[in-house]
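User: Teach me something about this protein's shape.
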Amino acid sequence: MPTVVFHPFVFIIWTASRLISLLLATLFLLIFLLYFVFYKKVLKGEKKLPWKKLIYGVIFMSYIILVISATILNNWGHDASRHQFIPFSLYLSAINQPFFREFGEFNYWFWLEWRNLILSIIMFIPVGILLPLTFSKLDSLKKTATVAVLISFSVELVQGMFGFGIFATDDILNNTIGGIIGFKLFSYMKSIFEKVDSNIQAFRS
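Assistant: First, the predicted structure itself:
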């Protein structure tokens, strides 16, 4: 492998700015589609859409498009022989990478592999938050985790079948962990808001 001079903080900033730009673009697009197409044309403006559900729905769909863009549309032409079906194989590969290369240079491949593993967890934390916010029936950890697994598996399946990246079992595992973390954060914040609201109601009465 060629030696690459790598600056991890620049790499992180570049990745974050790319994701934010994609999210903003899809957010504005879906606001238009959901409100002006679905509400005005399909419902003909007759049924009232709760503004909170509208916002949550737009954000959720925007984020799903962002995930698809980052994982499928941006990864064309990968070799099928690189598929990872054995659990934790990506972790073993990352662990075996040295932290530094010769002459004290950062090992690009070490940062790249660990970045991908960590991002695959972080990427689904918003999914675990937005699912129960958008769909009231997904009010349990089991339901939210199941949907997170289905979304992740669908993405990996498309990647593996059509060459948009590789199928990686570890990605499904990491995405599910991210979804669980997101739901836990949602549940924690919900309990805090409910407690604050009950205290306010008790103070007013």
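Now, about its shape. The chain has one domain: 8-204. DSSP finds seven helices and no strands in the chain. If you'd like, I can walk through any region in more detail.
User: That's plenty for now, thanks!
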